[in-house]
Structures are given as structure tokens and as C-alpha cells.
Design brief:
single chain, about 170 residues, alpha+beta, Aminopeptidase, 5-stranded antiparallel beta sheet, 4 helices, 8 strands, binds coenzyme A
């Protein structure tokens, strides 16, 4: 298992092709996808396609979306991580959790340590974030980790608020 980072309660590791059932579990819930411009995942074949074409290629530069497990039980709860968005030439911090694990502060914890990893280990200059204008939980997390609001934008036909934060060590 390729562990990227640990937080007090969480382990973040790279996904592998063996994770198709976990990804289907996560991305088949319409509530999880409510503010995202994505169709639900229905099959492991679809999940494998996403792993091979979207998730694994990001790992080349130590970036990527990483699977989150609870340290206490090893339970998979979702993902968090840093993705290079070629169309915006930006590094985007994102997160997605399975519904039973919402509102325990896990996404904030994962995002906070992911930001520190991006700045301290990867020496990134700026990290960006975006969330649907009505996705209150996600917007709160971006603000709580210290990001500044830039502007409203439309991405994949969704109205979003965009944020960024600069590396304090640079
Ligand atoms: C967004 C998401 C990751 C938040 O995860 P979480 O673990 O519940 O977040 P946290 O527990 O760290 O909560 C962060 C803040 O949002 C608040 N919050 C959580 N869920 C909320 C909700 N449904 N409505 C309003 N506020 C909410 C929390 O109370 C907390 O507020 P506080 O800082 O004032 O204490 C989770 O809801 C999710 O996976 N949603 C689906 C995918 C998604 O939308 N991802 C983000 C795309 S931009």
C-alpha cells in the first residue's frame, strides 16, 4: 500500500486498480453527487476506466486523489487530494466522502493535511479549490483551511465559487 500521508484519525493512500468496488460504493450515491457534474457509477468496469484514465495518471508527479481510511477500523470513507487541472493550469484540492462519514470533521482534517503536504513536501506555489455555490460544507472547508475567495465562475455548467491559497514558505 502506497501511503501518502497520515492525519490524527486518517490514512491517505494511492488508489489501485483493485479499488473498483470502493469507487462504485462512493460514486453511486446521488446525494454524494448532488453538487457535482458527474453521472453515478454503476459498474466496476466504469470505475476501472476512471481509475486508469483519471486517477492513476495524476500520480506521476506525486499529485492525485488519494483513498482515505479511518485509522481506527481501516474503513474506506472516500478520497481527498491534489489534482492538476490542465484546462485551468491549476492544482485543485478536492474531497469526497461516503454519506455515513459526513459531519465528523474528516473532510476538513484530510484537506488541512493535504494542503500542508502540497506546500511542505511538494513545494507547490499556489493551491486552488472550488465548490458549487450551494455546497455549504465544501465551501466551509475551503475557508477553514485558509483559502481566499477569488470569484464566482461556471465550470462544467455548474456555478462555483473559486478559492486559492499561496504557499507561506515561498
Ligand atoms: C463536502 C463533504 C466532503 C464535507 O465532508 P464532511 O466530513 O461532512 O465535512 P466536515 O465534517 O469537515 O464539515 C465541514 C463543515 O461543514 C459543515 N457541514 C457538513 N455537512 C453539512 C451540510 N450538509 N450542510 C451544512 N453544513 C455542513 C460542518 O458542520 C462543518 O462546519 P464547521 O466548520 O462550522 O464545524 C461531504 O459533504 C461530501 O463528500 N459531499 C459530497 C461530495 C462533495 O460535494 N465534495 C465536494 C465537492 S467541491
Amino acid at each position: 500500500m502506497n501511503i501518502i500521508l497520515e492525519t490524527p484519525r486518517l490514512i491517505l493512500r494511492q488508489f489501485t486498480e483493485a479499488d473498483t468496488p470502493l469507487l462504485v460504493q462512493l460514486n453511486s450515491n446521488p446525494e454524494v453527487l448532488k453538487y457535482l457534474h458527474e453521472p453515478p457509477l454503476e459498474t466496476e468496469e466504469q470505475a476501472l476506466h476512471i481509475i486508469n484514465t483519471i486517477i492513476l495518471p495524476q500520480y506521476k508527479n506525486n499529485l492525485g486523489r488519494w483513498a482515505i481510511h479511518l485509522k481506527s477500523s481501516n474503513q474506506f470513507i472516500g478520497w481527498c487530494g491534489l489534482k492538476y487541472l490542465a484546462e485551468r493550469d491549476e492544482i485543485d484540492l478536492g474531497y469526497r466522502l461516503m454519506k455515513p462519514f459526513w459531519e465528523y470533521g474528516y473532510a476538513f482534517e484530510a484537506a488541512k493535511y493535504t494542503l500542508e503536504y502540497g506546500f511542505n513536501q511538494l513545494h507547490l506555489k499556489t493551491i486552488f479549490g472550488m465548490a458549487h455555490i450551494e455546497n455549504i460544507a465544501s465551501l466551509k472547508i475551503l475557508e477553514k483551511i485558509g483559502m481566499q475567495f477569488i470569484k464566482e465562475d461556471v465550470v462544467d455548467n455548474c456555478p462555483v465559487k473559486t478559492f486559492s491559497i499561496s504557499n507561506p514558505n515561498n
